[in-house]
Amino acid sequence: MLKVKLITHTPDPDKLVAEAAKLCYSASDIDSLEDKLTPEKVEQFLDRLVDIGHESPVEHASFTFGIEGVSRSLLAQITRHRIASFSVQSQRYVDKTRFEYITPPSIEAIPEAKAEFIKAMEEDALHYDSIRQKLIEAHAKKLTDSGVDETEALKKAEKMANEDARYVLSNACDTKIIMTMDVRSLYNFFRLRCCNRAQWEIRELACRMLELCREVSPLLFRKAGPSCVWGACSEGKMYCGKLEETRAKFRAM
What's the CATH number of domain 3-88+174-226, 3.20.20.140, 3.40.50.2300, 3.20.20.70, 3.30.1360.170? Predict the structure, then answer.
């Protein structure tokens, strides 16, 4: 099951971005940026930035998320967002013998497909474990024959086995991610991944992340979401046909 946690974020991101914006548009020096920067003024600066699309000041604020219950398939998509920092659970160091897996809703909805999918995941786990054990035995023997202590040899053999046994794992295999993005990168992420045409798993993740961001900073993220919510759809002929429904959903979020 998808789990998303906002681990940390820039303290008072609205005020920081407002200070950066104020520097752009006034003669204030650094020490006086906070002068007269009331909550009302912060809101005015952020409204102006969002409305005119001046996004460089928002790069000073960043958000870090802890993500669990997602697939390696999602990992392949999310790391395409290159202006971000990622730490990912390693299949080289972590034994995935009893791996969890993510079931697509379309498979979940068809009993026969779901049963076959579960069987495939169970078989996958059996093959992974079998291959891993064979590799451990072979690597451990080679290491001990070369003079490595048995305990140390087993430790090294397990890591070596994980490295190659993982090739049998499915894209459905679960992973865990810690991801940090600045606000400008998040705007781009939400435009692309909250869209109805985005793949279902990353779309669900993006919408959860946007909810968390709006709880912390409703001003900075008031227009965040798919491009069609406050403007034209960016998908052209691939338009989903759900404009009003999508706008209502994200404006009420």
Answer: 3.30.1360.170
